Amino acid sequence: xxxxxxxxxxxxxxxxxxxxxVDLVILTVRPPRLxxxxxxxxxxxxxxxxxxxxxxxxxxxxxxxxxxxxLEQKTGVSVETAHLEQLATFGHPDRDPRMxxxxxxxxxxxxxxxxxxxGIDALDSAWVDIDGLDRSTLAFDHHLILExxxxxxxxxxxxxxxxxxxxxxxxxIAELRSVYETLWGVTLDPxxxxxxxxxxxxxxxxxxxxxxxxxxxxAKTYAAGPAEYLEPPVRxx
Amino acid sequence: xxxxxxxxxxxxxxxxxxxxxVDLVILTVRPPRLxxxxxxxxxxxxxxxxxxxxxxxxxxxxxxxxxxxxLEQKTGVSVETAHLEQLATFGHPDRDPRMxxxxxxxxxxxxxxxxxxxGIDALDSAWVDIDGLDRSTLAFDHHLILExxxxxxxxxxxxxxxxxxxxxxxxxIAELRSVYETLWGVTLDPxxxxxxxxxxxxxxxxxxxxxxxxxxxxAKTYAAGPAEYLEPPVRxx
DNA sequence: GAAATAGTGTCTTTGAGACAATATATG
DNA sequence: CATATATTGTCTCAAAGACACTATTTC
Lengths: 237, 237
Fold this sequence. Notes:
By secondary structure, chain A is α+β, with helices and mostly antiparallel strands. Chain A contains four helices and ten strands; from the N terminus they run E-E-E-E-H-E-E-E-H-E-H-H-E-E. The longest helix of chain A is centred in the middle third of the chain and has 18 residues, at 142-159. Chain B binds a DNA duplex through residues 172-174, 189-192, 194-196, 199, 210, 212-220, 232, 235, 237.
């Protein structure tokens, strides 16, 4: 933290100021779509371009509090039911044309969100399908952040139980499977997947109820189990 | 990035300044020790306590450049031969008693480093065994950062070829095994490990040479292969 | 009953681990 | 040769995947 060879290094106040922001990659799964929440900017720079939701960190605000606040403000979803984790920090000197801004990016995973809350300062806000989105048109370096978020989510569901965060409290194995299929862009064998999920201790717990989706045999429903990590993992094909 | 409900949010310069630093978890393996590079602070706050190497990010300096500079300055090792990756960002409002400081932490993995370069501003610097270190005595929130770094390293060697970064250009399978054993605190079956490493495409490539360690059959030597990820992974027991 | 989806059985292949056996050096 | 370490062989078990088959609903 402190040790260097120049005297000025000892005094934090002697250093030029940085602005610190949070940016959020908020993902939800609506098969066959993987959607990210984007806002259309009203102001320069990058006016009218789409961007990730984010904002400045308050002077006495913890980083995760800033992220949590933005998440709840933009989605209307309590962070209790969502997953929020730190992703990475982006701080290239030229990433914001106005001044030096370091952005701490966060990844949020949500189940079945309501329509986004339009801020008075954004032209529009929407859940945007990951496919069919030209990421290079995003404001700032948000294409990098989005890329990192998607990649993180794809990896996380392999070793953790986070796939259930994309679903309601009660869900079927087929719905859980569709989360994997949507994120990974593959199709999985229903039979093998069913067995694997039930074999992974604490991944899901049966509710004892069933639900009918119109056609076919009704599916038993499950709730997220107590486990945080999958053992063995659900490996990506 | 921009959208909120208050007007001041639009102007980055209107926001109170943060200081931004980098802190480094620099690890090396010297079986049976896993060592981290620490500095003993000369100045308040936390004078005489041990801390991770770090420093302020320059006004026009990219984050990774700041980390790279510190790494080379403190270890005398070129970043070419080391691995450096971003770890996480720590920004609790009270983590530095002087002012608001957000620290971007980095993880570095090194092979067989020289003695640390003592800065004129640190009382001492040393490679410290992870075991036998009372992490709670570290300055700032560096116990959290160190914890995150160790955990990251332990996970990385499971799915990536990074274990070879702890070794010289030429190494034996037994030396590679000792990296895993040291980081994971386990003993692995030499026979099974040998086969697994050779079965993992691109993990290591034979040099055609051998080396004798005094007793026993001489071991063939290998160099790091072209692969970055292990397929299949070397799973932690 | 036909169609559709949920869930089970079974077989094959692959990788992990235990451990015996062989290879090649030093003293 | 005794000993130590490296490397290969072999066997067993667990998990993954292909796919046939059964179960239970709607129309």
